[in-house]
């Protein structure tokens, strides 16, 4: 009798645990991506302020922010 219960419950428990672990891992990876997105900052070589990467441009070999005074 016990073998039947274990034989039915074990696969269900295994399936649920796998589902839970998968969900946790996906959440963990999404948190990591979000955090690294915030940390991705580079210094503007003209005004020396830290700006997010997508606001920076490379002009004449220099990393420059979006301010017009830095882009001359
Ligand atoms: Zn700048």
What share of residues is helical?
A: 40-55%
In this entry the ligands are:
zinc ion
- Assembly form of the protein: single chain
The best one-word shape is: rod-shaped
What is the structural class?
A: alpha+beta
Number of domains: 2
What can be said about the biggest beta sheet?
Answer: 2 strands, antiparallel
**How many runs of DSSP E, i.e. beta strands?**
4
What integer value in Å does the Rg equal?
25 Å
The overall average pLDDT, rounded, is 88
Q: Order the strands across the largest sheet as they lie in space.
A: 1-2
> In percent terms, what proportion of residues is strand?
15-25%
- How far apart the termini lie comes to 82 Å
Query: What is the number of helices?
Result: 1
H/E topology pattern: HEEEE
């Amino acid at each position: 009798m016990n073998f039947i219960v274990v034989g039915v419950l074990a696969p269900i428990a295994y399936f649920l645990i796998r589902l839970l672990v998968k969900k946790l891992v996906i959440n963990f990876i999404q948190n990591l991506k979000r955090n690294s997105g915030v940390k991705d900052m580079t210094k503007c070589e003209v005004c020396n302020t830290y700006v997010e990467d997508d606001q920076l441009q490379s002009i004449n070999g220099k990393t420059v922010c979006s301010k017009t005074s830095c882009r001359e």
